Each structure stands twice: as C-alpha cells, then as structure tokens.
Amino acid sequence: MRASLIQVAVEEGESVEKRRRRVADLVRDQAGADLVVLPELWTTGAFAYEEFGPAAEPLQGPTYEVMAKAASDAGVWLHAGSIPERDPDGTLYNTSLVFSPSGEPAAAYRKIHRFGFDKGEAVLMGAGEELVTVRLPSTTLGVATCYDLRFPELFRGLVDAGAETLVVAAGWPERRRAHWTLLARARAVENQAFVLACGTSGTHAGIPQAGHSMVVDPWGEVLAEAGAGEEVLTVEFDPGKVATTREQFPALKDRVLGLAPPRR
Q1: Which of 23, 37, 216, 223 could share a disulfide with 198, CB 3.0–4.6 Å?
Q2: Catalytic residue from among 121, 146, 198, 230
Q3: Which of 111, 121, 198, 230 is the catalytic position?
Q4: 2-254 CATH
Q5: How much is the pTM?
C-alpha cells in the first residue's frame, strides 16, 4: 500500500481560497498512491481561533467540493484533513472528511477531544460523539484528530471496531514536538497498528508548527518522517503486517476489561 502524507504549510498571508486550490493540486500530484492524507484545519490553521467562525463551512461546502474532485482526479482514497464545519443549528465542529477514489464521501469525523481547556477550540467548537472507521480494499482506517492522540482509550475503541491503520490529522505545535513523536509511536505499539500522523508546517497565529509527519509500523518503528517544512512524505507499507504482528505477539488478547475500582 502506498500512502502520501501532505504536510501543508499554513502561513499567514495566504488566503483560504488560494491554499485550497494549491492543496488540491498537491493531491492531484499523488496519482498512483492508494491513500493521501492532509492535516488538521489546514484551511485556517489549528490555532487561528478567530478564523474558525468566519471560515466555517457546511459539511458539503467549498472544501468538500474541491477535495472530492481532487480525489476523483487523482483516483485516490483521500483523508482531506479537517475543516471548521458549521452545523445547520449553528454549532461549529472540527470535522475530518474522507473520500473514495471516485470522489464519493466515505466518512466524516467530528473531533471528540477539543484542545484548549477553557479557551480556543474547547469553547468555540462542539465535541463529536462517534468513532469513525473506513474500510479500504487492503486495510481499515481508524480516524482521529490531533489532541485525540493523547487519549489511548479512543484508539482502543477504533481497534475494537476493526481499525488496522490509525490516521491522525494534526496541527501540532513545535514546542511539544517530542510528545508528537512519543505518542504516535505509543499508539502504534499498544494497538499493534500502523499510525499515519500528518501535521502542518509553517507558523500561524504566531504558533510555529511541528511538522515531522510520520508513518509508524505496528512495532513502533518509524518507517519515514518528514522535516519541518512543507513536504510530501510517501511510504509503501504492507497492511498485512498488522495481522502478522498481532499473531506473533498477541498482547491484545490479554486485555482485562471492566476492572473494579480500588476499595477504600
């Protein structure tokens, strides 16, 4: 399986419309890949909180339309990163879009864990409530977004739902890049799954981005890693390694669920 992670540079001064067209062209350039992945909130920047409302789109808005066509033109499965979605009731969500090689919608995932504590995304956007998986011909994707990476129970839920390849679209800051690398590898090892972690580069809202998108195998080995700037990271991997790893080292079978709380 060939996957291309497009580490989009999100820089101030480039309009959403211009970036949308530019990224669509980058997707088309990946014809021949099986899967293309974009980062979180690449139209606005994950920390550009003041832009979420003005740039919010309906689910089937401009980004949806442009990315559906790009997926069809390239003939690839496309995880189109996430957009600030405005629901008909007015609620904003951080929503990831997935398209089939024919440009048909395959899934939409509303980010469950919102970053910011008592500000930013945590107060501006609603929380998703459903795990999302997508069946591809050679693997099943589990979809997660940025801050989700810190919550292992979400990924356990995806694995229980059949996920073998965990895709994480992110806008991760440079100052916490060590956590990005550590957590991506941890999620791969504990779930015995591939992790495709795609982040942004550049600086937006004054926050330098980590870049360093990566592909990690089920043993936690980093198969490839991008640098700090805009880059397309392309990797070929064997999805069958997930089943082999889980058979050779069947740790998931030893999970103990429903433990009672400690006695007091």
Answers
A1: 37
A2: 146
A3: 111
A4: 3.60.110.10
A5: 0.97
